Amino acid sequence: MCVRVFGEGVDKELGRRAAGGACPCCGGKVAAVEVESKCRFCLVPVGFVVKKKYICTNCSKRLVLR
Questions:
Q1: Residues 9-18: contacts with CB under 8 Å, at least 24 apart
Q2: pTM score of the predicted model
Q3: Residue 12 confidence (pLDDT)
Q4: Burial tier of 56 (Cβ tally within 10 Å: 0-12, 13-18, 19+)
C-alpha cells in the first residue's frame, strides 16, 4: 500500500489497449491502461505497483468492473 501523505508519488502510463465493452454513460469505446505508481519518501524510492485501469476514450471517465 502506498501512502502519499508523507511522500510524493509518480504515476507513469506503461501501455494502452482496447478493451471489450462500451461506456455506460456515452457508449464510447473502453481502453485498458496499465499504470505504474512509484512511491518515494524523501526522494528515496520505496516501492512501485502496476495497476490496470479502464477508461472511456470519448468522455475520459474512469470505469470500474464489477
A1: 9/37, 9/38, 9/39, 9/40, 10/37, 10/38, 10/40, 11/35, 11/36, 11/37, 11/38, 12/36, 12/38, 14/50
A2: 0.69
A3: 86
A4: buried
